[in-house]
Amino acid sequence: MNNMSAFNLARLVRTKAASPVEILKVHLDAIARANPALNAICTLAAEQAMAAAEAAEDGVMRGRALGPLHGVPIGIKDVTPTAGIRTTYGSPLYADHVPEEDAEVVTRLKAAGAIIVGKTNTPEFATGANTINKVFGATRNPWDLRLTAGGSTGGGAAAVAARMLPLAEGTDLGCSLRVPAAYCGVVGLRPTAGLVPNDPEPLPWDPTLVHGPIARSALDVGLMLDAMAGASALSPISFDAPWRGAMVRMLEETHDLRRVSIGYAADIAGLGVDAEIERVCRSAALGLSQAHATVREVTIDLADGRDAYQVLRGEWMVAHYHDRLDHLHELGPNLAGNIESGLALTIRDVAAAERNRTEIWHRLRRFFSEFDLLLTPTVPVAPFPVEKNYPDEIGGKKLDNYTAWYAPAFLISLISLPAASVPAGITDSGLPVGIQIIGPRCAEPSILACAKLIAEQNPIGRSPHAA
Predict the structure, then answer these.
(1) Which has the least CB within 10 A, 60, 150, 217, 359?
(2) Is the pLDDT of residue 271 over 80?
C-alpha cells in the first residue's frame, strides 16, 4: 500500500476499502525499514499521527464529509511550524523547539484530511541545496546512498521517492522544491507566488519564498495543490486560483497537449550542462510531439540575472534574519555567509538588481507571448557526494559561489514564475534526471499536464533504496 498514489489512497478511504489507521501503519512500517539508511524523516510524530488517523477513521464511519486528502499520510518540512510537533529549522538553536500553532499551509492540509506523520530534514534554516545539518546529519539519496538528495527540501523528496510517504510539503526560495525532486526522481512544484499563503513569515509581501508540494506523480501534486492554494487574510499577496474546478480533475482528463506550444532550451543560465543530462532532457522534451504538442528548440539567455539574484538573495537574508544580525556566530557558515553578503550591499546594488529583475521578467513575458511553456534541465549536474557542500565546477568550468550551480532554478524564482521538476529519464549510472517545466503566472494546469505526460513517456521505475 505504501507504493500507492495519494489519489488512490484517498479513494480507498472514501470507499471504505482501506482505513486511515491501516494506511498509516503501512507507512510507519515503511519508514522503519527505509529511514535509518536515508535519514529523510528527522522527527517522527507517530503518536500524534495515529490519533489523527483514528479520528479520520471515525469520521469515515460516521459518514462525515471527507476532504480530498482524507487519511493520506504527509511529511512537513522542518522549517514549517507544526503545532505540538518539534520544528528545529535544522538548527541547534531550535533543537527542542515545539511550536504552539500550525503554519497556514499545515492548517489547510489538515483541513483536507491529511495525516501529519512527521518532519522532513532540511539544511539549517533551509539555506543550502544539500540537506545536511548539525542536529540530524545528512539526508541521503534513495538512488545512491553516497550522494546528496539535494536541498533544501531534500528530506521530503527522499521520503517520497523511497515510498515512506506519498506526499511532502516543502518551500522554495531559489531551488528548494525542484532540485531535490530532480535528484530523487519525483515531481516538485514551485507555485506562482501568492497562490499558496506563506504565513507565518517575517516578510509577508515577499514574492520569492513559496510553499509547494512534492509527490511521485503530477496528479498527486495537483491533488495536494488543490488543498494548499487560495487567498488568506494572513497573507497579503495571496489570491484564489484563477482556473475553474479542481486541478486533479483537469489532470485526470489530460491525454495530450494539442494546441500547446513548447520551447526547449538546453542552457538558460550560461553555465553549461552535463552532456548526458542534456541528452536525456532533450529527448523527453522533443518526445512531447507524440502527445501532439508543438516543440521547438530555442535559445534564451537569462545569465545576466545571476548577479541580480545573488544581490536580492542577500537583501532577503538580511531582512528575513534581521533579528539575528548581532548573533551571526551562532549560525552555520552557509546562512551566516549569505547574511554577510547582504550586509555588504549598497542601495545602488539593490536598485540595479531590481531593474535587472524587471528586464528578465519582460524577456520571459515576451517569450510566453509566443510559447505556452519553456523546458530546460532542472539541474545542470548530476547528484554529488553527500559530504560535499556543493559542486564547484560544471564541465571543467569553475563556479564562483555555492549557489551558482542551481541557477537554472533560481533564475525562475527571481521573477516569481511557477515551475515544476519532473523525471525525464535515467542516466547510464542509474540516477534520475529532472526536466524543469516553466510557465507564465498561474500556468500550473499546463505545467502539471505537461509533467504528467513526460512522466508517462519516460518512466524511471523504483529507487533501489525504497521501502
Answers:
(1) 359
(2) yes
Q: If phi over 0 gives left and psi between -120 and 50 gives alpha, with beta otherwise, what is residue 117?
A: alpha
Mind giving me the DSSP string for 50-98?
A: HHHHHHHHHHHHTT----TTTT-EEEEETTS-BTTB---TT-GGGTT--
How crowded is the C-beta side of 44, counted as CA atoms within 13 Å?
19
In the structure, what pLDDT confidence band is assigned to residue 396 with cuts at 50, 70 and 90?
confident
Please provide the average confidence, as pLDDT, over all residues in the chain.
97
Q: Collect all residues with Cβ–Cβ distance below 8 Å to 420 and sequence separation of at least 6.
A: 178, 181, 187, 188, 189, 190, 218, 221, 436, 437, 447, 448, 451
Contact predicate 116/82, CB 8 Å? yes
Which residue, among 123, 134, 24, 141, has the nearest Cα to 78 in the 3D structure? Answer: 123
How does strand 393-394 pair with strand 419-426?
unpaired
E-strand spans in 210-310? 210-215, 261-264, 294-297
pLDDT one-digit tens code per residue, 135-147: 999 999 999 999 9
- Between helices 218-228 and 104-111, what is the axis angle to 10°? 110
pLDDT tops 80 at residue 428: yes
CB 273 within 8 A of CB 384: no
230, pLDDT greater than 80: yes
Instruction: Report the distance separating Cα 19 and Cα 423, nearest Å.
Output: 31
SS3 30: helix
Helix (H) or strand (E) holding 337: helix 333-343
Give the chain's end-to-end CA distance (angstroms, integer): 11
SS3 call for 241: coil
Largest CA distance in the chain: 63
In angstroms, the CA 457 to CA 383 distance is 23
Q: What are phi and psi of 297, to 5 degrees?
A: -75, 135
Three-state secondary structure call for residue 293: coil
Whole-number pLDDT of residue 414: 98
- C-alpha–C-alpha distance, residues 442 and 227, integer Å: 16
Say if residue 455's pLDDT is above 80: yes
Residues labelled as active-site residues = 77, 152, 176
Band (317; pLDDT cuts 50, 70, 90) = very high
Distance CA 328, CA 324 (A): 7
CATH fold of 6-457 reads Amidase signature (AS) enzymes (3.90.1300)
What's the whole-number mean pLDDT along residues 31-42?
98
Domain ranges of the chain: 6-457
pLDDT value at residue 392: 86
Mean pLDDT of 303-332: 95
